[in-house]
Amino acid sequence: MEKKKLAETFSLVLQPSAIAVLLYLVVSFSFARGWRAWFFFLIGLLFVGIFPILLVIFLTKKGKVSDPDLPNREERFFPYLMICGLYLLALVIFLLTSAPLPLVAITCCYLGVTFVGAIVSLFWKISLHLAGVAGPVTAMAMIISPYWAFLYLLLLPLGWARIYLAKHDLYQVVAGSVMSIVITFIIVSSIV
User: Fold this and answer.
1) How far from chain centre, in Å, is Cα 188?
2) By three-state DSSP, how is residue 76 classified?
3) Number of other residues whose CB lies within 10 A of the CB of residue 49
4) How deeply is 168 buried, as exposed, middle or buried, from its count of CB atoms within 10 A (0-12, 13-18, 19+)?
5) 8 has pLDDT over 70
6) For the purposes of burial, counting CB atoms within 10 Å of the CB of 27, is it exposed (0-12), middle (13-18) or buried (19 or more)?
7) Number of Cβ within a 10 Å radius of residue 130
8) Closest by Cα among 157, 104, 109, 147 to 131
9) DSSP designation for 75
10) DSSP character for 6?
11) Residues 6 or more apart from 183 whose CB is under 8 A from it?
């Protein structure tokens, strides 16, 4: 497989929304049963997995951003804030339905990491692709089992892909990962 195609595949498959689906699936069914587990998973799937993608596609079609990948730092702040609004809605739903604390915690993590990423994007382009893997892996290792930490290995091909595609440099990739790990660790430790 051609290197560029491989890098594009890693970048697509390991995008933050895809990892969110796995995280909400595992956490929902680890801490809830029956229809409640399905309901919590559906909220995570929609508000953290699908709606952010649809929002960015909508903004692209309306000409508010140039590319769904948000490659231009200057275009990132408001879409990220709108995505934070979606995460906030999910958090409110979880709180109103007495969701298990791990679901509240991971939703707070998404909100916190994306908000900090939005602020950082005002000054510098940080990799939220890497943040979208590093944070959820940290959460799963802390909440479910330390064995989930093996998924940190996904940061290697994803980091390579983002650098190879000239979406980020090494510092932006490392900073996105570290930022997400630290924020996630603080939030999960405080809530769960």
Assistant:
1) 15
2) coil
3) 22
4) buried
5) yes
6) buried
7) 27
8) 109
9) G
10) H
11) 109, 112, 113, 116, 135
The string over 63-102, giving b where at least 16 C-beta atoms fall within 10 Å of a residue's C-beta and e elsewhere, is eebeeebbeeeebbbebbebbbebbbebbebbeeeebbeb
From residue 77, give the alpha-carbon distance in Å to each of 26, 59, 65, 175.
30, 13, 11, 17
pLDDT band at 189 (very low <50, low <70, confident <90, very high): very high
User: How buried is residue 33: exposed, middle or buried, by Cβ count under 10 Å (0-12/13-18/19+)?
Assistant: exposed
Rounded to whole angstroms, the Cα distance separating 34 from 102 reads: 17
pLDDT tens-place string over residues 79-103 = 999 999 999 999 999 999 999 999 9
pTM score? 0.93
Structure tokens at 183: 């924020």
Measured between alpha carbons, how far apart are the two ends of the chain, in Å? 43
